[in-house]
Structure formats: C-alpha cells, structure tokens
Amino acid sequence: MLRILIKPELCAGCKNCQVACLAEHSPSGSVWLADLSGGHGRPRNSVELNSRDLPVPLTCRHCQEPECVTACITGALSKNPATGLVEHDQGRCAGCWMCVMSCPFGMISPEALEKKTAVKCDFCQGRETPRCVEACPTGAICLAEVSPETGNNTTPGEAPKEEGLH
Amino acid sequence: MKYLILGASAAGLSAVRAIRQLDAGGEITVLSRDRQIYSRCLLPEVLAGRKDPGATRFVPEDFLERHGARWFGGVEATRLLTGEKAVLADTGDKFTYHRLLIATGASSFLPPVENIRKGRQVYGLRNLEDVEAISAAAGKGRGAVIMGGGLVGVDAAAALNERGVSVTIIEAAGHILPLQLDRRAAERYQHIFRKRGMEIITGEMVTRILLDGDDNVTGVELKGGRTIPCALVVAAAGVTPNISLLKDTAVETGRGIRVDEYQETSVADIFAAGDVCESLEAFTKKITTTPIWPLAVQQGRVAGWNMAGARRKPLNNFAFRNSMEFYGLPAVSYGLTEAPGPGYETFTRESGESYKKFILKNGRLRGAILQGDITGAGVYGALIRENIPAGATGEKLFGLTYADFFNQLEDGSFIF
C-alpha cells in the first residue's frame, strides 16, 4: 500500500506541503487563488517544531487499527479495505469530536471555518501523488510502498486488518 | 462454530465484524431488544429535532447481510442456561450457542426518589423509545426537570431547550458535568445555558416527584424544600448494566459482568463487551464499567477475535476521556479534572473562547481539559493514557504536538 513516509531530517520548514494541501482542498485547487488567510480553512497536514525547534512534517498515518474509526459514533469514519485509507464521510459526521479526542497523534481536527464536522487527510482522493508530497522540495515527505503486515501503530502483536464497522 | 450475540449496538456489531474477519463460515446470530440499529450517542440529536431516527444508523444498510449474520430485532434474552449452552428469549424461543457474547448494554439508573417509578412522565434518555416518549410529553409544554447534570442530562437539557421547552437541571455537585470538567470549564457552559434560558440548580437533589391523582407528573420537590413545577422528568443519574438474564448462573458479576483482558467471563465460552461489562480500566487501574462508545467498539472487536479462536488483547482500556459540544463550544477532557492533593502542578490558560488546563505529577500528565480550541487534543490524551513524560512544563505544555514525540516505524506508523 502507498503511504506517505516522513523524513524530518530533510524538512526545511518551508510549509509548501501545507499550502499545497490547502490549495488542493480549496474550490479552485490553485495555489494562486487559495485564501491563505483562513478563508479556505486550514490545511489537513502541518509542520510543527519539536522540542529542539526543528521542523517535523505531520500527516495522518491511515493507521492499521485507526482509533478515530473505533471512536466514531455515526459511521462517518471507516477504513477502506481495498486501499487501507481511513476515509471520512463529512455528510455523516455529527461533530461529536470523539475522533479528535481519540487520535493519539492529533491528526483529525474540527473543520476550521464552520467547525461543525471533522476533517482529515484524504490522500487527495485518488490523485496519483498526494499534492503535499508533490510540493515538497526536499523529499522530507515521500510516497512509498509499504506492507500492511509490517506493523501496527500501538498494538503489541499483530491484529487483523481493521476496517471499522463497515 | 455457532456464535450467539446479545445486543446490536456498538459492541455487538463490532464483534460480528471481528468474528467474520477470522471465521468465514461460522453461524452468527444476533438478538437485540432494539428493533432498529442506531447509535445511542445520537439520541440527543433526534430529541433536538436535528436528525431523523433513521439517520442514527451507524453501519451500512447491508451490514448484517454482508457479514452473513442473522438478526432478530425486538427479541430480548431473558435467561441464560449455561449448562445446555442456550439462551431463552421473551418470545419463548430458545437459542443455542458454542460461543456467546453478552453485549446487552445498560439502562438508565433510577435513583431512590419518591414516586420515580409511579410517575407517568419520568424517562431515561437511553433508547429510541425514550426519545419518542419525551417528545410526546414535551409537546404539552410546562417544562422539564433534568435529574443529573452529567453528559446525558446536559445533552437532554440542551436538546429540549432547542425545542423550546423550559428546562431546569438539578445537579448534586457544585457545577454541571462534574466528572468531565472542572468548575471553570463547567461555568463557561453554565453561563451559555443560562443565557439560553435554562435554569441550573447545583448542590441540590430531587427528593420527591409530585403527581396528580392520575400519577401525571406536576413537579418535583428538592431536598432544600423548594418545588419546581414541570410536566416531565428526565432521570440522568447514570446507568446500570443489563445483567438480569444472568440470574442463577455462575457468571461472575460486580456492577457489570466481570471480564478478563480477552473479554471472557468467569464461565468458559461466554464473553461480554461494552456497557454491560466491567474490566480493568487503564487510567485508574481499577475494575470498573467503561461505558463509552470507543471502548464498546474495541471490546466487541476483542471479544469477537477471541470467540473466533484468536488470543488477542485490546489496544488499551482507557475510559477517562470525554468529548462534547454545546451551542458551538466544543470540549475534550482526559483523566483528572482537579489536582486531588499535594504533589500535583496545575497550569491553566484562558483567552476568548479557549480554556485549557493541564495537571502534572512528577512530569507526567494526569489530567487535561481543552475547551474552545480542541485541535490536537488527542496527543494529551495519549500522554495520559500511556503515562509518558510530558517533557515540558509551564507555557510549553500548551504547545505540545506529536512533533515532540515523533517516532515512525518502517511502514510509516507513528508510535509514542
């Protein structure tokens, strides 16, 4: 399965990935027309400084046993069995914030404008290369084929592939 | 293998799915008192009139069919016969099993208040039928009294307030949401609720429900002597596990059905999950009931895997977490809401609609409240759950993100 791997040591902190994410999820899709002052919401990824003030790019892992999916009370969140992606159906979301409470990495948030539903990385919905990866000039985030059998975020031992309640 | 599952909510259906992952051919039967599949957490949305009952279904229409499970809705298991491995239902039918999951949930607890069982307009907020009954009674006007200012009580109050019913919350503690929030965060909600016309009475209890000659509710009397007229009462004083079918069996119970980390009960081949069970909770390290949705799903999954022959433990069993939103103000909290004694440090910050509070002990977080701005809350929850040193104190605590703990496995997974 294709996943976005992170190499913080290569990150220059330019935030091109965030601009790319914002643009991709704005009406025009264009970096030129995207409202960077908040009118088109917030990017779904982030670059945060760690305790040594070094930049770390962060984005949803599409976990093997996603805690956001486990916590979802409406069925809005699910893990796609074919792609392994954790998908969010905004139309079903009740804005209860159980997912925000449960993601140990803080990778799902209230949508910044309306604040009525949650929003998370959608892997640019079938785009060949996610826009953030494409925009990264240093290779700090890159696309890689990983085996879903090689591990699981916080579970000791292996669990069967989880697909939420779908 | 013949699986029988009692309950078709979070835990029961999660188990169906987990069993099917490991056993393609086993026979799965689900019995539930519920006639519909719905998410109980969404009942306040229905009561408020924001959602239709049909929109509370949390699995796809074809879920049971797709997982090859037979479902009998409106069928309540009344007796467990462990000797012959069978369950008797209120329909008179007998269902046999090789492996049984009890996921019958919990019911509204009715506190010892005079006339509480006699009054005709006293309801819990637990089932779709409760919502229908409350809606019918609320239509008559004259107001509602909510006994208990916990999450269910406040949800009910906000929903009824939105429908134009005049609402009074009676809470025994000094502020509403005493298990979820500290005084400051709760007061911020109380301020909003009062502005919306709700009455909130704290440090008080209902001692008697006042009835007319036909047992219709006319009001409540409080411990301090005050009476409040109302047409209906919502009892929101907690829940009690549905374990009556275990009478005269050897299945060990405390408040709920006692289970081990595999969700197995004291009787072989009988499992329990969700609100009906009690288990070792991760934050308190005590055996307690764990009545939150994420744990019902997770426990159902673990039960399902183990029923199907795997030997798997849960990710964690952390029940001390809450999320909520009232009138556009969200909040998330974990662990302690107040420092319980010396040896703790408390850090708070309040600006505009945002209020944050962190409680540290020996460099480790023991409690967190985020109200207003809840983005990134889960990181604090994970630090509390995993008992990881926060690596920060004072102002720095407010800016913690996963960048501070970044650790990536070969397949891209994050771990702490």
UniProtKB/TrEMBL annotation, chain A:
Domain 4Fe-4S ferredoxin-type: 84-113
Keywords: 4Fe-4S, Electron transport, Iron, Iron-sulfur, Metal-binding, Repeat, Transport
Single Gene Ontology MF annotation: 4 iron, 4 sulfur cluster binding
InterPro entries: 4Fe4S_Fe-S-bd (IPR017896), 4Fe4S_Fe_S_CS (IPR017900), ET_IronSulfur_Cluster-Binding (IPR050954)
Top-level taxon: Bacteria
Name used for this protein in its record: Nitrite reductase probable electron transfer 4Fe-S subunit
Organism: Desulfocucumis palustris
UniProtKB/TrEMBL annotation, chain B:
Molecular-function GO terms, alphabetical: oxidoreductase activity
Gene3D superfamilies: 3.30.390.30, FAD/NAD(P)-binding domain
Limits of the FAD/NAD(P)-binding domain: 2-300
Listed name of the protein: Nitrite reductase
InterPro entries associated with the record: FAD-bd_OxRdtase (IPR050260), FAD/NAD-bd_sf (IPR036188), FAD/NAD-binding_dom (IPR023753), FAD/NAD-linked_Rdtase_dimer_sf (IPR016156), Rubredoxin_C (IPR041575)
NADH-rubredoxin oxidoreductase C-terminal domain segment(s): 324-387
UniProt keywords, alphabetically: FAD, Flavoprotein
SUPFAM superfamilies reported in the protein's UniProt record: FAD/NAD(P)-binding domain
Lineage: Bacteria, Bacillati, Bacillota, Clostridia, Eubacteriales
Keyword Secreted: no
One Pfam match: Pyr_redox_2
Cofactor or coenzyme needed: FAD
